Structure of Toll-like receptor 2:
Amino acid sequence: MRRPTSCQLALLLLFLNLCRGQGSDSGDGRSDSGDGRSSCHRCDSHLSCNCSHGGFTHIPVVTDRALTIDLSCNAIATVMDDDLMGHTRLRALDLHGNGLAAIQPSAFDSLWSLEELDLSDNQLAALNYRWFRKLEALQQLNLLSNPYSCLGSPPLFQGLIQLRRLAFGGPALEELRRGDLSGVTQLEELTVHANNLTRYESGTLADIWPLGRVTLSLHGPFLTNMPVASAVLGDVSYPETPITLEDLHLIGNWSVQPLRESARKRIRHLSFRNLSVSDEAVVSLLVVVDGVPITYLSVDGITLTGEGRWEKASYTDQRSIDEFFAQDVVVLDVFKFFSLLDLKFLLQYLRRVSVINSKVFVMPCITSKLLVNLQYLDLSDNLLTDLTLVETLCGDHETLKELRVLNISGNPLKSLSTVSRLVTKLSKLTHLDVSRTGYISMPPSCPWPSTLRHLNISGAKLTTTTPCLPATLEVLDLSNNNLRGFTQHLPVLRELHLSGNKFLSLPPGQLFPNLQTLTIHSNTLNMFGRLDLQSFRRLESLQAGQNQFVCSCDFVNFLQSALKGHEGIHLTDGEDNYVCDSPLYLQGEPVGRVHLSIVTCHRVLFVSVSCGLVLVVGVLLGVFLWRLHAFWYLKMTWAWLKAKHSSRCRQRHRVIEGSEALLSFDAFVSYSERDAGWVENFLVPELEEPSESDSGDPRTLRSLTLCLHKRDFLPGHWIVDNIMSAMERSRRTVFILSENFVQSDWCRYELDFSHFWLFDGHAGGEAAILVLLEPLSKDDVPKRFYKLRKLMSSTTYLEWPREEERRPEFWRSLRKALRGGDEDD
């Protein structure tokens, strides 16, 4: 009785959940599409959608761009006509293990590009040719394990001209008729499960040619209906066609009779899978294939019910058997099993022997001596120890002298020195596999045959390597150990496999001048670079993914260049295997898609360039602001704020003292030092002394008081405070304008601040009196004094006359302006 499959278990669990009223949640990639159908969103970047084990009861909505959809192991009972509508690009559809009972005739009509279809392990009781009529691109079809009794009519596969792999049959298949496979002209692989086949028309499978590998499950016909089994085997037996027979119980002579037809066709490749056989049947089988040019004989999962007494077939000719493969061999009574010494007729011709996972603990030396032509021996996954290995290999130069390849991996071996000593006698040995053993160390030195080229010590527990390794090696596999470094010089090594260790960096390339392939993925590498790889002079292929990469700028730039093939080395494990482990914000990001900013990668250069740009921009901005006199505005604003603060403090002090501000001067005079002679010789005497030409009015006889910076500014005080104080205590301000005034830095500063004070709300334009000592247009006044320029355009100013006779009139006008219009002309 067969155990339930994983899909059947999943269906059972789903049924129990449904009975309890529990459904699948949306955390598994499912959602409701809005029209009552569920959706599946578990699609990868290659448009392959895995919707298996999702608990779906109907075909879910999947993107119509999908190339592969796996809907296996759900509970889909029916496929409707419109369930797969629009999937014109779909290439592979897997519906196995659903309990599928009905498919509407047009359900697959839109799948024009479909190449693979799996409908196995369902409940399809009848097959309909209309399912496949539009699937002209179909190359692989699996209809196994469904309860149909025949393939039906018209022929199912009539239009499948591209079909190359076909599997059909099940527990209910009873009949195969000629024409059932009409349209199938050639196949690379044919699988037929017909354990209960009762009717078979000869020639049903005979029209398929060329025919590749054939797998047949004919348990029932072999036991009860040998003519049917013989007819089936006769239709598919060709020298070029490998045949595999499954689920057979060969008990007596009669049970192997159907194989006579295959023997008659001189087949060359014969395999058995899940076979139970008696001694009598073994002898009969050897008799049947006597003289048949079988070159390959394989048994996978064989139970030997007898005692190994096969000497009765010693007269048969088995010299054509070149390779014998046995896996999962079970001997029911191993203690009674007869010696193989009487099988010299069979063993002496074999060149390739594999006995895998069969609990072999020893092969007697005398049996080994019978294998005189053996070139390949695989005893992997057995129970050989160092002691029994000595018995198996004998340790002399005559035993297994033709052996080229020895695989003793997966055995509980402990001593590498013992193995090296034993194989030294094998003078033609080129390949040795001692992987998955119990080696924890290497001896300092080891003898090896000079012919050894390939050595596999992967999957052991080595922590270091020593010069024990032979210098003749071309291929060395040390994967999945506990190595942290490798420093052995191997001059002719072409391939080195170091995956699954604890390397922090690549090994020195100078040690391997001829190395072409290096695999070092799944270690603890942080990074590697161009210099590391340049030490390998002939390296062509590298696998270094699945490491703990620190995504620095240099590493990212180098690896992205290498992934594009610009470094002369091919990264064969693909871009997705190179993933950042740090820094934290890049963790899990494929290196090929990382984009680091210039700030991160060129910090010094960035700072230098930034500072340079800031300096240049600052200079340009300074020049621009200077041209716009922005500095003047800033300087005046600061001076004004500071002076204003000082003025408020003085006013507050006066209020506290109970006094008011007094006007001490009639005018504050602003002039250039170069014009001081005119001010002192003309202006001051004329205004501060009563004029004899005045009319005698007391008002006109009163002298005016002028504020001059030379005379009236307080020493030790800030110039701005002096100007501010003088202007506060003066009724008017007189500007003595001349070319000297405009050119003088001191006068410009005084004029700047006076301009800021006079025309910023503290006094009106009538408080300023302009006196031109020489002709001066408004264009000669700096543009930043825009209010003064405007005042010159809108206000009458006084010009100093050159003629003596006009000067009295000038002085009268000036006095009148200073006294606010109280004088008469």
In short: The first helix runs from residue 6 to 19. The first strand starts at residue 30 and ends at 32. Confidence is low (pLDDT under 50) at residues 11-27. The chain is about 25% helix and 15% strand.
